[in-house]
Amino acid sequence: MTVTADTTLVHAGTFAVLGPDGGLTGRRGSTPDGLFRRDARHLSRWELTVDGATPLVLVPLREDAGAATCVLTPPGTRDEPPAYTVFRELVLASGVLVERLRLVSNLPQPGLARLELLADADFADQFELRSDHRVYAKEDARRSAAPTASGVRFAYDRAGTWHAETVVTASPSPSAVEPVGDTAHRLVWDLELPAHGGAEVLLRAEARPHGAPAPSPVTGPSEAAALAHADTTAFVEQASLAIPRDAPAGLAAACHQGLTDLAGLRVPATGPDGEELRVPAAGVPWFLTLFGRDSLLTSLFTLPYRPAPAAATLRALAATQGTVYDAERGEQPGRVVHEIRHGELAYFRQVPYGRYYGSIDATPLFLVLLGTYTDTTGDTSLAAALEPQARAAVEWMFRDGGLGEGGYLVYRPDPKGLVNQNWKDSEGAICFRDGTQAKGPIAVAEAQGYAYDALVRTARLARDTWSDPAYADRLDREAAALRERLGRDFWMADEDFPALALDGAGRQVDALASDAGHLLWSGVLDEPRARRVGRRLLEEDFFSGWAIRTLASGQPCYHPLSYHRGSAWPHDNAVIALGLARYGLTEEVRALTTGLTEAATHHAGRLPEVLAGYGRAEHSRPVPYPHSCSPQAWAAATPLALLTSWRS
C-alpha cells in the first residue's frame, strides 16, 4: 500500500509540511511541502537515501507530543531482509527544524551504511507556490549555496535590500558535501554500525528570513520537543473547561484538540507600545499570520476560557490600524487590517498583502471583541487604553465604510486584491439564487449585524468606561436606526428570511445563505424573526446532519464542493450556534453541536477549515473539502464556541 498523507508541524510562526517518510520534494500547487517561515519556503528538498536507494516506509510519519517520527528501511527481500532500520525523529521550533536520524543494525556482525541527504532551499514566496501558477518578475534576484564545515548554507538576495538564509548543520559533520544541479547539495556520511548497535546523525535546518528575529537556539529534537510541549501544555491546561455531563460524546476531546492547535498557531506580533505579543494566526499552510477577521473571531470563541488571545489580538490590530489613505492596499484612517504579510513579494509590493485592509467586517468585529472582552473579564483597562483606536474604528464605519452616507457598511470589489471583502471572500461567493454574482458596492447581511453589535457595545464602553454619555447616546441612536433599516430592506417576505446582501442598485441578493445566522449572533433581528430564521437553518436543505451549509441545497447556485457556495464551515456554524443560544433555541443548538462534534470525531477530534456540503443521506461520514486548511484557527476554536452555546 502506498502512503501519501502529509504531516504538518507548526509552532511560533514556523511550520513544516513533511511527507510520510519525513522528507520534502519541493512540491508546489494546492498542497506544497517544505519548511516555511514568514511566508517563504526555507527548505524545499530534504530527501534521504540509504546505500544508494530510497528507503521503504515501515511506519509513516506521525506527530505525537510535538515530535514527528517514522520508521524506514533499505530495500530488502524475505530471504535477505534489510541490514538495518532507520528511525527518524523531526521536531519544529521557532525558525528551526531539528532531526535525529538513528540507524540500528539488525545483524550480528559490524557493518557499514552510506547515508545521503539531498537538501535545497528555493526561498519561494507562498504566493508563487499557489495552484494558479502565477509568475512574478524578480529583477536582481540571486540564489546561492556554499558548503560549510558541518553542512551547507543557502542564501537568497534581491536588489541589495532583501536577504534570506537557510543554514543546515549536522553532527557528526558529513564526510562530503556535493553540489547537485543549481543550488541543491548532497550531504554524505559513511556510518559504522556495530553488531546489533547503532549510529546517529543530528541535523538542524535554520530559517533566517529577511527582518526576522533569530531562530530558536535548540540543538536537538529532545530539547525542541520539551520546549514546544511545555509551551502547549501551559496554554491548554491553564484552566479547566468544565464540560457538562450531558454534552455530546467527543466534545471534550474536540475542545482539547482545538486548544492544542491554537497553542501552536500563535504567532509573534507587536502592540501599540512596541510590546511583544502572541496572537492566533489564521491557519496553515497559507495563512500563518495575523488576520483581522480570523484572529478576531478565534479570540471571541476562546474568550470565555482563554482571554489572553483576545487581549493580544486587540493590541496587535490597534497597532496596525489604518492611519492614511492608500488605495493600493485599501488602507483608510481607522480601518482595521485584513492581513499582514512578511514575504518578499509583499516587501516589493508585487502583492498588496504586506498590510492589506480589504475587509468590510474586521473593523466592526474589532469593536465587538473589545466590548465583549470588557464584559467577560470585567477588566476596563484595555478598553480605556484603546479608546482612541475604538473611536477611530467607529468613525471609519460612518465615513469610509458607508454607514453614514448610505446607511450600510459596503465594500467595492478590489481588482488587485479581493473581489468580495466579507468572510465569503472568494469570487462569485455573493450571488443571486441563479448564481449571478452581485455587483458592488455590496452590503452583505452579516456585516450589518456586526456593525449593529459594535455600536451597541461601544456605546456601553462610552457610557461606563470613557465617561462620555453624549457619544453613547449617539451610538445607541445609530444602532436602533440600523436595526430598523435592516429589518425593512433585507427581509425577503416571500421567503420569510433575510437576503444574503444588497447589491449596488439596492436589490436583494436572494440566495438563501448561512449569513442569516450571524444576524442572530449580533442580536439585530427581533425575536420572532430570529427564532424563525434559527429554525429554518436546521431544515434539511441547510443542515447536512454535520453542519449548516453556506447555501441551502436545491438552489441553482448551490454546489457541495464550492468553497463558499454549498460547503459547510465550522466557524460559520459556531457563530450560528452562539446566535441560536442567544434566542433560546436549545433544541437547535443541541442538534448543531451534536452534528459538528460527530464530524470532529471522524477527523480525530480536529475540525477542518471546511467540509463539503454532502449530507448524511449521501454518505455516512463527513466528506472533506479537498483544499481545506488544517489546523485552522477558527475551526480549532469552534468546539469552544459550541461549548459556550451548549451551556447557555
Produce a short descriptive summary:
The protein is an alpha+beta fold and 648 residues long. Helices cover 31% and strands 23% of the residues. A hairpin with a 2-residue loop joins β9 (84-93) and β10.
* Structural class determined from secondary elements: alpha+beta
Overall, the morphology is globular
Query: How can the largest sheet be summarized?
Result: 8 strands, antiparallel
**Strand neighbour order, sheet with most strands:** 7-8-9-10-17-14-13-12
Radius of gyration, in Å, reads: 26 Å
Indicate the percent of residues in helices. 25-40%
Tell me the span between the first and last alpha carbons. Answer: 48 Å
**Which parts are unreliable, with pLDDT below 50 for 5 consecutive residues or more?**
none
Strand count: 26
Q: What is the averaged pLDDT score?
A: 95
Describe the structure.
This protein is α+β, with helices and mostly antiparallel strands. The protein contains 16 helices and 26 strands. Strands 7-8-9-10-17-14-13-12 form an eight-stranded antiparallel sheet, with helices on one face. A five-stranded antiparallel sheet has the order 3-6-11-16-15, with no helix packed on it. The radius of gyration is 26 Å and the shape is globular. The two termini are 48 Å apart.
List keywords for this structure.
single chain; 648 residues; alpha+beta; 5-stranded antiparallel sheet; 31% helix
Write the layout of secondary structure elements.
Layout: E1 7-11, E2 14-18, E3 24-25, E4 34-37, E5 40-43, E6 45-50, E7 56-64, E8 67-73, E9 84-93, E10 96-105, E11 111-120, H1 126-129, E12 141-148, E13 151-158, E14 162-171, E15 176-180, E16 184-193, E17 198-208, H2 221-236, H3 251-264, E18 266-270, E19 276-280, H4 292-302, H5 308-319, E20 339-340, H6 344-347, E21 355-356, H7 362-377, H8 381-385, H9 387-399, E22 443-444, H10 445-464, H11 469-489, E23 491-492, E24 497-498, E25 501-502, E26 508-509, H12 516-522, H13 527-537, H14 570-582, H15 586-601, H16 633-647
Antiparallel strand pairs: 1-2, 2-4, 3-6, 4-5, 6-11, 7-8, 8-9, 9-10, 10-17, 11-16, 12-13, 13-14, 14-17, 15-16, 18-19, 20-21, 22-25, 23-24, 25-26
Helix pairs in contact: 2-3, 3-16, 4-5, 4-7, 4-16, 5-7, 7-9, 7-10, 10-11, 10-12, 12-13, 12-14, 14-15, 14-16, 15-16
